[in-house]
Amino acid sequence: MEALVRAGVSFLGFEGGEPLLRRDLPAILEEAHARFHTSLVTNGWLLEHRLTEIARHLDVLFVSLDGIGETHDRLRGIPRSFERAVAGIKASRHDVPTVISYTVTRENLDHAERVVELADSLDVGLTVQVAYDYRNAEPMSPDRAGLLQTIERLRDLKRSGAPIMESVEYFDAIVDSWYRGRPWRCKPWLTINIDPTGRIVLPCYVLPEYHGGVPAWEVDIRRLWNSFDWAPYATCNRCALACYLEPSLFRWTNFAHVRERVVAATWRYARRAARDAMRRRPAGPIPIESRDA
Predict the structure, then answer these.
(1) What is the value of pTM for the model shown?
(2) I need a surface site. Which of 36, 111, 137, 197 has the fewest CB within 10 A?
(3) Assigned domain for 188 exists
(4) pLDDT tens readout for residues 100-118
């Protein structure tokens, strides 16, 4: 983690596998939260059981859902996994900002609007990803015509106030690139990916399918980043992962970006900090009314 601090990293996210299977996860998150804005992605199966161990060390918690009810259970291969995930969301939303993470595939394409409705009813956020057609995901990638309709519908829901984290520009960029031949310029250097063994994944975790290179603690990350040839990947556009696309789209000159990503996010963070401070505030003495006998 100190190598990432020296590199200037501000945000650190933990994904899986399933992070909640690690017994030492609370200690890891505590170390991370002392240095970074910290997030975690979980399938939610163990969330209720381990929430009290991790909540205070997180700024954002993502819970993966692949659809509603039986569809999610079938895609996960575990009965009651949807029930357990939703129970975890209901428990966590009061202790840490919670977001449903939904990946659009050909198996759940028709669940997109229902997942939005679920996030709204639970009063949590929603982040949307599109299954990328690399070796492990190709069988799940949605068909182009159906995907276009879903993307446009999600964009309309975002405009109408749905709790979707991605910007309108995010959905516009996917449509423009994949359907109209107008690519967006990817900036993969804005995100550092590290595999489970601690090795840095370059240029991103999509193209090499999460195969890492040099260990993060054995290299000057700033020097590595400044010497790496990023140019060939600027117009890749082969994925639509928000962790790459959204930062690549951000412009300080775009008022909508600044309002949503900076002003609104700062306000939400300040509200949570104030709420947490009130929770930690010790209760005062109970006044005792004395009366003369």
Answers:
(1) 0.85
(2) 197
(3) yes
(4) 999 998 889 999 999 999 9
